[in-house]
Amino acid sequence: MGKGGWATTEVYSIQPTEKSKRQPTLTPPFTIGTLRKAIPQHCFKRSLVTSSAYLTANLAAVAALYIYSTTIDGLPVWARLILWPAYWFCQGAVCTGVWVIAHECGHQAFSESQAVNDTVGLVLHSCLLVPYYSWKHSHRRHHSNTGNCSKDEVFVPDLMPADHEEMSIRDLGPVRLLELLFVLTLGWPMYLFMNSSGRQYEGWANHFSPYSPIYSPRERKEILISDLALGLAAAGLCWLGSTYGWLWLVKVYVVPYLWVNAWLVCITLLQHTHPALPHYSDTEWDWLRGALSTVDRSYGPLDIVFHHIADTHVAHHLFSTMPHYHAQEATRALIPVLGKYYMRDERNVLRALWEDRQACRWVSPDKDTPSSGVMWFRSFKNFSKSE
User: Fold this and answer.
1) I need a surface site. Which of 59, 143, 173, 307 has the fewest CB within 10 A?
2) What is the distance between the alpha carbons of residues 89 and 331, in angstroms, rounded to a whole number?
């Protein structure tokens, strides 16, 4: 058994440039049908009752934390300096769990009913200022094109030739720290407004315009619905701020909201940006190898709060309509079949963020196969050691 109770066959260690630690890129000796048969069939069952129970527990925790926050300002200053940050962290984590349930709605994993899924997802995501349908459609395309250097939708790396070498100010530690802080605070809104880190489109790609090149004409009506729901949510927040005070709104909602954004970006970034994972050219790419180009990692006790979105992400990319409460069992069943195609990173999250921000600056083929359609993460620091 590996760390965290997983029976792993390949665990990424601390040498990101060792080719022996890379995920295999040959066509796997299994099919998606083989993988599905390896998983107990009840894992694919979507239960409205079970999903609603998880959501109810999440919302009860949100309410309990809010009630707790109403007692803080009556305490001494030293206590407030401790308890407000504690509230912000905990509420941000719990609301990230709400975000994950809304994400499951977008995958139709909350229940068997699409109407229920979309209604619940629209309400939850709008309350977190996420354009539900807009994200649902772009995220579906991410799942359809994972690891494709020209068609993936999020955290698409720069593609460089095999002999590319570049040293810049970004290799300095302080600059890397500033970059990480920028990504964790502004990365999500920049993705929504400017498609930052997404694939290249002709014209202005964003998640709010029905005529954005991200969307097809048949999706435009739903983009408008998302915009309307966001407008209602924003109006509600403005009413709360004007009624109870803007400082109250910042302390109770805005700061936890920023934590949600940071967790969202952190989780997504680390799932797909990893030295051992390949990216593929459009001609080399296929869906199964692309879906496998992700890595599981644990966030410790937060795995429960985050509904295991990070430590079962490989299974999620293979079977995205599977509800989160079956994903651990499914992952355990998949690991023996996946073999070396299964990747799990045992580094802690802060270390992975710091190291991979340096190690994963761009992707390129290996020097000995410059025309290959298989690309690997590079940086100036690890370039010479990767060959």
Assistant:
1) 173
2) 29
